[in-house]
């Protein structure tokens, strides 16, 4: 168990996102970057929105960012979350991957202290043999 209880539905690994999940399993955060124009994109998709190229790489990123927005959920969206609510969901703007925002939970912070703009860093929650979720912690050194 981690921030999210066992029994939660987990993301499906698809062709476009396989590289992201393989990196997460190694406890590395990556973002898809076009190798023709350099634009980052997330969630993973086959074509660059900027130049329509099909060429990309998985760029390792620092895992540091800022909370761009957050919600506190009081009504569980799945029965497994019944004993977890209220819980937070954050959208994190990555410092070194312009335009990339990743969703997760801020796992070490009371809900009332989750603020827009607060510095955070990635951490990892191993859920199954295949799925490790990138999650977020406060970054007090930022
Ligand atoms: Zn491009």
How does this structure look, described?
The chain is mainly beta and 142 residues long. It has one domain (18-138). Helices cover 6% and strands 35% of the residues. The chain contains one helix and eight strands. It has a five-stranded antiparallel sheet with strand order 6-5-4-7-8. It has a three-stranded antiparallel sheet with strand order 2-1-3, covered by helices on one side. β5 and β6 form a beta hairpin. The longest helix is centred in the first third of the chain and has 8 residues, at 18-25. The mean pLDDT is 95. The structure holds zinc ion. Zinc ion binds next to loops.
Short recap of the structure:
The chain is mainly beta.
Kindly estimate the percentage of residues that lie in beta strands according to DSSP: 25-35%
Alpha-carbon distance between the two ends: 28 Å
State the low-pLDDT regions, or none.
Answer: none
SS content category: mainly beta
Question: Which ligands does the model contain, each kind named once?
Answer: zinc ion
State the helicity in percent bands: under 10%
Number of helices: 1
Number of separate structural domains? 1
Main sheet: strand order: 6-5-4-7-8
Average residue pLDDT: 95
Radius of gyration: 15 Å
**The biggest beta sheet, please?**
5 strands, antiparallel
Number of strands: 8
H/E series, N to C? HEEEEEEEE
């Amino acid at each position: 168990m981690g921030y999210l209880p066992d029994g939660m539905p987990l993301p499906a690994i698809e062709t476009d996102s396989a590289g992201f999940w393989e990196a997460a399993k190694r406890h590395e955060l990556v973002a898809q970057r076009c190798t023709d124009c350099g634009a980052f994109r997330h969630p993973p998709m086959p074509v660059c929105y900027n130049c329509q190229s099909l060429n990309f790489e998985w760029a390792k990123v620092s895992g540091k960012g800022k909370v761009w927005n957050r919600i506190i959920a009081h009504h569980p969206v799945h029965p497994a979350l019944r004993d977890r609510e209220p819980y937070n969901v954050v959208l994190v703007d990555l410092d070194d991957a312009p335009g990339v925002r990743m969703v997760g939970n801020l796992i070490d912070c009371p809900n009332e202290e989750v603020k827009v703009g607060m510095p955070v860093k990635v951490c990892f929650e191993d859920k199954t043999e295949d799925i490790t979720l990138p999650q977020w912690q406060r970054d007090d050194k930022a």
